[in-house]
Amino acid sequence: MLNQKDILATIEMIDNQHLDIRTITMGISLLDCCDCDINKACDKIYDKITRRAENLVRTGEEIEREFGIPIVHKRIAVTPIALIAAASFQDNINNKNKKSATPFALALDRAADVTGVNFIGGFSALVQKGMTDADKILIKSIPEALSRTERVCSSVNIGSTRAGINMDAVALMGDIIKQTAEYTREKDGLGCAKLVVFCNAVEDNPFMAGAFHGIGETESVINVGVSGPGVVYQAIRSIQDAPFDILAETVKKTAFRVTRMGQLVAREASKRLNIPFGIVDLSLAPTPAIGDSVARILESMGLETCGTHGTTAALALLNDAVKKGGVMASSSVGGLSGAFIPVSEDEGMIAAARSGVLNLDKLEAMTCVCSVGLDMIAVPGDTPSETIAAIIADEAAIGMINQKTTAVRIIPAPGKKIGDIIEMGGLLGSAPVMPVHSESAAAFIRRGGRIPAPLHSLKN
To answer: What distance in Å separates the CA atoms of residue 367 and residue 407, rounded to the nearest whole number?
Structure first.
């Protein structure tokens, strides 16, 4: 039971500290939509999504009004489309005119438009150990698919602790990211903001662009993502120069309160939609708004600017305390749950990058202890695809060795050079174009094959 003090504190968090439910995401299995006829498969996908998610947006809006809790986005995640598309490609594998998964993306986009959701994720392939013909077709369709759709998000899992890193897929994704940027050149490479490359992707992630409905999930599920960087920032400021153990305890207690609110919304949405409740993902996902920044949290611990020495240690404390507080509050914490560090979506990160204190190498070091990886980073448009692939490989290695999820969402902005700003709007924000190393990694990437899994992968 909540007492009056708890209620007033929650109201304060919502009204003045940017606390929100970042997303209610409905996961939908499309395994029963496979069909040898690609048009029939797309029709089945459209019909099932629009039927299952018919009331998702309306229900979210009702909860928002009744509880007074902002729900920023309503989203859908579906079974990785490469799995569904395989049946449609089987009879046409040698027909070049049929080698495109774009019709599936268009069907997803139409369904997202009709249901009114902000994004739909799952134009995805899981290729950590190898690529099927359907995987290759889907991946090569990504640039066109993301340029012709508004709400579709795409992800590719290229590595895992159990499988190692598929370097052929890494090299291919370097090319695909470059192509996607060119296909959306008029929008500063916006398509790349809807494309993420994973190592150790999780099946219950409600956050885009990496959300998909895992094959181990039930028919449909409701997952909720909560975000409250502003709340944590204010909590740390309230204790000023307290030692680290007290600081960690303060973050943990704050995360506990935020997670409880997320679970309340998740269970209410589950009950009203008559769909099982899955997980609450407590991730400190920032926005471009002032006061809603993970970078400012780190600076409130005593760092002059995010990216200076001590930043990785501060982020490690923050990430661990957030996870501990979330687990205390709910037995259904899942997804990624921790601190995100997307550059374009965090006004403090943007400021630190523009000042030159925060660079790509420091961001990579920070990803060793945070919840995801190199996120929403703009680089010069003439960055070679091999360099992008090498950045992906570095990040995947961190995830593989540390048994954690890592990801890369990078934007080689066409025609832009170091110091330019790209604008994407909304939650995607803006980003300064950051430098990359000019020395080539092309010979390394051309080796191909697979980086073997580490020894500690053998746990069974």
So the answer is: 9
Pairing of strands 152-160, 164-166: antiparallel
Beta bridge partners of 355: none
For 21-199, the fitting CATH number among 3.40.190.10, 2.40.30.30, 1.10.10.10, 3.20.70.20 is 3.20.70.20
Residues 6 or more apart from 155 whose CB is under 8 A from it? Answer: 121, 123, 124, 195, 196, 197, 198, 201, 209, 210, 211, 212
Q: Mind listing the pLDDT tens digit for each residue in 86-141?
A: 999 876 544 545 589 999 999 999 999 999 999 999 999 999 999 999 999 999 99
Whole-model pTM: value is 0.91
Q: CA triplet 429, 434, 438: central angle to 5 degrees?
A: 150
Over its C-alpha atoms, the chain yields an Rg (Å, rounded) of: 21
CATH class entry, domain 226-253+275-452: alpha beta
| Omega before 101 within 30 of 0, i.e. cis | no
Same fold yes or no, 21-199 and 226-253+275-452? yes
Per-residue tokens: 453: 């899994």
Beta bridge partners of 377: 410
Question: Residue 216: helix, strand or coil by DSSP?
Answer: coil
Q: Quick one: tokens of 364?
A: 């990579």
**Contacts of 323 by beta carbon, 8 Å cutoff, 6+ apart:** 255, 282, 333, 337, 338
Structure-token pair, residue 236: 């740390």
Residue 282 DSSP SS3: strand
